[in-house]
Amino acid sequence: MPVFRIPGPLRSLSGGEATVTVEAGDLRSAIEQLDARFPGFKGRLLDDQGQPRQFVNLFLNDEDVRLGQGLDAPVALYELRGLNGRWAQRREAVAPAGRDVSLPLIGWIVDGKQVRTESFAGRVRHVAGRRLDAEVDTTLAPLTNVRLRLTWPELGRVSGDLWGKVTTETGGRVVIHLTSVDPADATVLDGMGAPDASSEAS
What we know:
This protein is mostly beta strands. It contains four helices and twelve strands. The longest helix has 11 residues, at 27-37. The model is unreliable at 77-95 and 195-202 (pLDDT under 50).
């Protein structure tokens, strides 16, 4: 299901909520659902012709929707996080820089509320906030829910359970957006985006 990540300047419309999940198959319908739940969003985001307002930038994952299929784009995970103009908060100010890494991972596919017993393995190659770019030894279709454990070589330990959703897959390389991380692992991930973080890539 699409997940809107609401930047600070618009959280007055969402009752303070930072994320809002809706049910929709494309971006236009997702905005309609968001506005039905929290009136006012559609008017802030779209003009009278139903197109994104001039000073509002909308990003579907990491892509500006104006460069893709626009409001007809199918949605798996939608992140509203780039705003200019009167509600100034540029995408560059909120998008984590990220870091190239080489972190061993082991994972399990989650079906409904059940975690499969068979595992898969791979390596995380890039970390940016709660986004992991990874190479894995199995096929993980977009929208697959996963449970992961990463090895932190610098700390000499394995992470706790990291829960996430696959958003893209290309030839064994996947993008996973983490949806639940314990505080200790969140601190490690956040530290990887720090400007003075050294690379672990190999």
